[in-house]
Write a structure and sequence with these properties.
The protein has 68 residues and is an alpha+beta fold. Helices cover 26% and strands 28% of the residues. It has one domain.
C-alpha cells in the first residue's frame, strides 16, 4: 500500500475513563481530508503501532526500590 493521503489535519484525544483496578483509555483520532475507507482504516492501524500505544496495551508492573 503506497501513495500519499489527502490529509489536511490530524489530532488525537486520549480520554481516561476509569480509575479502578483497570484503567481504560479511549483514543479518538481526528483526520481531516478526502480519505477513503481504506485510508482511514490504515491510519487506525498506524496509530495502533505507536510504541506508547503498544506499551499501554500490556500489563505494567512497577518495581520501586530505595537506592542505598
Amino acid at each position: 500500500m503506497g501513495g500519499a493521503f489527502a490529509l489536511r489535519g490530524d489530532g488525537t484525544g486520549p480520554h481516561r475513563l476509569a480509575a479502578t483496578i483497570n484503567t481504560n483509555i479511549r483514543m479518538h483520532l481526528h483526520a481531516e481530508g478526502d480519505l477513503d475507507g481504506a485510508q482511514r482504516a490504515r491510519l487506525v492501524q498506524i496509530a495502533q503501532l505507536c510504541p506508547v500505544h503498544k506499551t499501554l496495551q500490556h500489563p505494567i508492573h512497577i518495581e520501586t526500590t530505595l537506592a542505598a
